[in-house]
Amino acid sequence: MDYIKIKFIKGSDHLNSDTARGIAGMFRSISPAFAFSEGLWKPQMDIYETDEEIIIIAEIAGVDKENLGVEINTRAAKIYGDRAEMPRVKNSTYRLAEIQYGKFERILFFPSPIDTDKVVATYLNGLLQIRLAKLPTDKTHRIPIIDG
């Protein structure tokens, strides 16, 4: 069985967008002609939840599993990768070219904290599915008080 790389991180410092992506997004909203090549496309995703878990489904057809990464902490997930461009056919006129290539990155914040020890990711037929178990919120932890 092959596994998808999942990196567990503490805190959300590594999940913040950098300034270049922020500027690129600002110009892209004004005009697509100003889009920078890095981070040009964002795959379509669904997130839904049940009482026990949060499920993420990402549509990333054509991305090799080796070029796919997932980073998780208790509050967010970062899904990133790279889709290689297909070679262009010589001596042809393209009438439509909508498939996006290159690097992508999505950062998704969870509606409730998740248990990073109970994460399962599968990739089949171009769909990445990540199942994340929610941390129980009704569980009470007794904290011992020590002499100080």
Structure, explained:
This protein is mainly beta. The protein has a domain of 93 residues: Immunoglobulin-like, CATH 2.60.40.790. Helices cover 8% and strands 37% of the residues. It has one helix and eight strands; from the N terminus they run E-H-E-E-E-E-E-E-E. The strands form two sheets. The protein has a four-stranded mixed sheet with strand order 1-4-5-6, with no helix packed on it. It has a four-stranded antiparallel sheet with strand order 2-3-8-7, with no helix packed on it. Strand 7 and strand 8 form a beta hairpin. The protein starts with 5 loop residues before the first strand and ends in a 14-residue tail after the last strand. About 7% of the residues have low confidence.
Q: How far apart are the termini?
A: 52 Å
Percent in helix: under 10%
Q: How much of the sequence is in beta strands?
A: 35-45%
**Outline type:** elongated
What is the CATH domain class of the domain at 1-11 and 41-85 and 100-136?
Mainly Beta
Give the beta-strand count.
8
Poorly predicted runs are: 30-39
What is the typical, i.e. mean, pLDDT?
Answer: 80
Secondary-structure-derived class: mainly beta
Instruction: Please state the oligomeric state of the protein chains shown.
Output: single chain
**How many strands, what sense, and barrel or not for the largest sheet?**
4 strands, mixed
Task: Tell me the CATH architecture of the domain at 1-11 and 41-85 and 100-136.
Answer: Sandwich
- Strand line-up across the major sheet: 1-4-5-6
* Order of helical and strand elements: EHEEEEEEE
- Cα-based radius of gyration, to the nearest Å: 19 Å
CATH topology of the domain at 1-11 and 41-85 and 100-136: Immunoglobulin-like
